[in-house]
Amino acid sequence: MLSDAACKNAHKSAKAKLGKAFKLSDSKGLFLLVKPQIEGWSKLWRFKYRFAGKEKLLAFGTYPEISLDQARQRREEARKLVAIDVDPSEHKKAVKASKAALTENNLEVIAREWGQKKVETWDDKNNRSKRMLERNIFPWLGAKPITEILPKDILDCLRRVEDRGTIETAHRTLQITGQVFRYAVATGRVDRDITPDLRGALPPAKGEHFAAITEPKLVAELLRAIDSYQGSFPACCALKLAPLVFVRPGELRAAEWDHFDLGAKEWRYFVSKTAVQHIVPLSSQALKILDELHPLTGHGRYVFPSERTPRGERCMSENTINAALKRLGYGKDIMTGHGFRAMARTILDEVLNFRPDFIEHQLAHAVRDPNGRAYNRTAHLLERHKMMQSWADYLDGFKAGATVIPFRKIS
After folding, report:
1. Catalytic: 11?
2. For the chain, N or C: smaller number of CB within 10 Å?
């Protein structure tokens, strides 16, 4: 039988001097396989046994990570399996496969798989859904098999968010978790989505709207302030373009040059929220901004790249527009990047008298035609081109300080 000293000094033995692999036998089929390597020697535990009339070999790991006593203990466990007609090698494979299956069934693994396949901007480190899961769910439930998660487990995570005083974030986190569970149901990892069981468990969200300036006189002051902004040139351009196109802030900052057809005066991109392609007609004012910016960022993917990635691998941060507004004296309680949508929606309807369905189409909201069909990306495109140019001209009138006469509805 082997001793610990013999195992420890095996590479110094007479057999080792021959420079070839050799075995040091213990007992009952256990032996230490000593093999020369480029640097030093490897010492591997092996167990030789017979099963169904065939000689087989089972690995127990390396010495000294697996001690002599531990190797003998594993040998005895393997011998007991053989005694009850179970092949230790097949048993080991089954255990390994079971552990792998459990890992693949963990909530975090499933959530990241869902994000890669279902969330267009998932790889962006600032992706909101990913950040919410990483901060609010993964630390407590990420390593747990999704089949073992109970509604109470999710609620405990949401209570932590609520305790931070962000009930809206708790509701949003619950929604995202529900999407992950529904993906898990679709891919056969779990039987049902348990998040509806938490309906009513959280206090209702306040439902506050994004702050927006809609009074024409105050809009004029805001536009003049935007023209005076002293930030980076891409940030200045993004800030000037925001009221002209009034898209969602995330869509503006992630705008890609390949999606613009400046000749056709259009910007076409996929709206993840409504799962349709959206068309933004571009006014002459918007085209001028893009023409001035193109020599600087046109070599890359994004119209507004992050300042931290000179080659343009990432788009502008989600905080850039709001931070710029704050520097101009417009905090989030007064005006936000999302507020340009409410500004346009209000003035186009109540002052410029454009048809509400034209406006709703331009906001990329779900609109149904008289036959009940859902949003058509080309609906009223000619009229929307006219509307967007009229809107830009009207804003120019604000900035010039002229007495702006409301445009009448274009028939």
Report:
1. no
2. C
Give the whole-number percent of the chain exceeding pLDDT 70. Answer: 89
Whole-model pTM: value is 0.52
In a domain, 407, yes or no: no
CATH number at residue 116: 1.10.150.130
The single residue of 341, 345, 361, 384 carrying the catalytic annotation is 341
CB 386 within 8 Å of CB 269: no
Cα 191-195-196 angle, rounded to 5 deg:
100
Annotation says 301 is catalytic: no
Is 314 tagged catalytic? Answer: no
- 80-107 residue pLDDT tens: 988 888 888 888 887 776 666 656 789 9
Instruction: Tell whether 300 and 373 lie within a shared domain.
Output: yes
Distance (Å, whole) CA 106 – CA 102: 6
Alpha-helical regions (H) of 228-353: 233-245, 249-253, 284-297, 320-327, 339-350
Q: Which domain does 31 fall in, by range?
A: 4-95
Cross-strand bridge partners of residue 185:
none
